[in-house]
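4.2 Preliminary Data

To establish feasibility before requesting continued support, the project team ran the inverse folding procedure on a target of 181 residues. The structure was first converted into the token representation described in Section 3, and no sequence information of any kind was made available to the design step. The complete token record follows.
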């Protein structure tokens, strides 16, 4: 009997954890975002790294659900848990301090976390066009994408999928610029 890929278990887990959450449009189940982030990581950026794929699906579970580090560690391993924790903002800090702390931890964390962040901002930019977000929200999404690119740039030489991710995110950022003017 063939063993199913671990990301299937991660999708099932994320679906249960995010079961009552919706995207900003108030209609779309939130879990669609985390599945798309995994698909962008794998299919657009060309990454097959298991830690990256699992972290992509689980990237918002600690931040947005009752899930904690230990839950992820028990179910998916310490490496995945560290990656998800790196992608989790410290909501105990004021927003300005939170963003500085998040960028610092993302820069110091595993390369897979930076790749997942690129997939996250890529999906958010794609979604911002289809959901008709305000110009101000699109500008914030572009600024987040630009920060993610800068933080991940050092990984591009060692990890081809990060180089591809940066190219894709830069292209989608460029495609947003005329719409925001």
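Position-by-position output of the design step:
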């Amino acid at each position: 009997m063939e063993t199913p890929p671990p990301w299937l278990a991660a999708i099932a887990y994320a679906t249960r954890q995010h079961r009552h959450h919706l995207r900003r449009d108030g209609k779309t189940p939130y879990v669609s975002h985390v599945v798309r982030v995994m698909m962008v990581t794998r299919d657009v950026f060309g990454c097959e790294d298991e830690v990256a794929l699992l972290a992509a699906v689980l990237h918002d579970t600690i931040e947005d659900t009752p899930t904690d580090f230990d839950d992820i560690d028990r179910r998916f391993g310490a490496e995945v848990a560290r990656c998800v924790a790196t992608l989790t903002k410290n909501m105990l800090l004021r927003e300005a301090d939170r963003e500085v702390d998040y960028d610092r931890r993302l820069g110091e964390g595993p390369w897979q976390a930076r790749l997942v962040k690129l997939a996250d901002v890529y999906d958010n930019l794609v979604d911002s066009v289809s959901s008709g977000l305000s110009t101000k929200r699109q500008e914030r999404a572009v600024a987040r994408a630009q920060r993610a690119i800068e933080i991940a740039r050092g990984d591009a030489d060692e990890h081809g999928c990060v180089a591809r991710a940066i190219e894709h995110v830069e292209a989608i950022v460029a495609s947003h610029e005329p719409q925001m003017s």
